[in-house]
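step 3/5: co-fold with fructose -6-phosphate
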Amino acid sequence: MCGIVGYIGKRNISKVLLESLQRLEYRGYDSSGIATLDNNDLYLCRETGCLENLAATLAEYPVKGNVGIGHTRWATHGEPSKVNAHPHTDCENNLVLVHNGIIENYAELRNKLKKNNHKFRSNTDSEIIVHIIEDYLKKGAKNLEEAVICTLMDLKGAYAIAALNKNEPEKMVAAKNGSSLILGIGKNEIFVASDASAVIPYTRQIVFLEDYQIAIIEQGKFNVINLNGNNVAYNVSLVDWDIDSAQKDGYAHFMLKEIHAQPKMLKKILSEKFNSDNFSLKLSEFSKIKKYSADINQIVIQACGTSFHAGMVGKFIFEYFVNLHTDIEISSEIKYKHFIYSKKSLIISITQSGETADTLIALRQLRRKGLRTISLCNVVGSTIARESDAVFYIHAGPEIGVASTKAYTAQLFALYSIGIFLGTLKRIIKKSLKSSLIKELTFIPSLMHKVLASEQQIAACAKKYAKYNDFFYLARGINYANALEGALKLKEVAYVHASAYPAGEIKHGPITLVCKELICVCIVTESSTYEKMLFNLEEIKARHGRVIAIATEGNQEIKNYADDVIYIPYVQEIFSPLLVALPLQIFAYYVALARGCNVDKPRNLAKSVTVE
Ligand code: F6R
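step 4/5: write tokens
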């Protein structure tokens, strides 16, 4: 899982490559590098760590040329180090290549190449690709594209690559299978990137390459061919994202900005999905859902991480609003399951990036079984969006912080909208109930503002507990998903151990860990399980555990059970996950800040997980 870029044109080559890589840094930041060609001279610069390190080295040792490629890495094969940083070169330093993905048969190919006297400098799977290209050129391939095509036939696995040849200095060849790759078409200049966000400051004309397509790019022109070497047709799409939202707008971190963006974002989504005058659904928004769901008897949601937690809430929503049995599956487990779903199942894939390999592979597998698939994606034109029968965009806008915040509540919002739509379609929800549910949703943005107004109180609470190393997150019912999400946020950004449990479960084992060093974040908002939660709080207090309660405004009783209370406004239980998510996000953010963590770029993580 890495980001790759390429450029052919007249701009300052290192500036354009660095800027494009910066916008892909969410895909990994273990190391980075660029290579450029200036006539027959090859320049190569690589560094470990963030792009700042690469920029500093480039300032000292500038590169030249009108053609270049770049890479930002999230290590899979081989530790994060300078030798394992891309771009990689062949034995003779004539060829240079960047790769995103994983080559599954790399060990076998590497052994074969070693027997043919190829010398490897890195421990990566990627380096073998450039050596295979070298072999084919030596064996008589007439140019870089022909050698690349032959090479692709040898590779098993996922890849997006861009390659240069010193002996064809005005050309770049790029190809993909499984990993995403786009071309950005400018005036007399062409960009290559893992996704469109890397190039939108320069051009919004985007070609989304398909698997096994090879782009041959030269000064101001390009063509796309298939593995037979024949030209293929392509579409140029206009991407209309708002680049301003990629700035921090005065917030210290993208994560904080994105937490605060949630009320405005939901207000905008509301106006897109619902008619505000009569609290009805804008049916055109749901037509694709209708097409694939008329006769369904079951829903299966598949997703990873935060998107999986949104899916857990989705299960409650669909069972409550649509009266349909709903399963929720972790994408990476689907491949190994004996699947018993009928053709009347509707598969819903939830993914912010639309590129998560586990989710994509599960989607492909389910489609091969003939199941219909809808995806809830944020990134427009992403692979999962394109490969599903229908896509329902969640419209969270670009999410830059690696830890997902606003995409989570946008995913929840999409699930509520679809739940209300399907419930109405299946006549489970009557017209009057539908209007009152939509009306309640319209209040959510202003209620979120109220939660955000408690930011400083939550920050003080976070600071108080930041030195502790063990947390439980406890809830019952629909908010158990939020307990998992709160614990995940704390682990991700603050590097603190946190486990989430349905509160009733702690007496079956985890209660042995309760002591005064254990902090229990308990979701005790007004709900059908409120009384039961109080019993659990008693159990914790009796064993000297410390309790931070997230409770409903006005509840004084809870103070008898908790060391600290964070209040949120009242909302009916089914919608409560939308509000409960916010204090959990803010709490994790401020614990991370107090512990001096890199909030927007947590160690070992990447925004888009494009490996299995
Ligand atoms: C957590 C987080 C990850 C992602 C997961 C799935 O903050 O960001 O757990 O939710 O990697 O990613 P998407 O939604 O892009 O499929």
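step 5/5: annotate
The chain has a mean pLDDT of 93.
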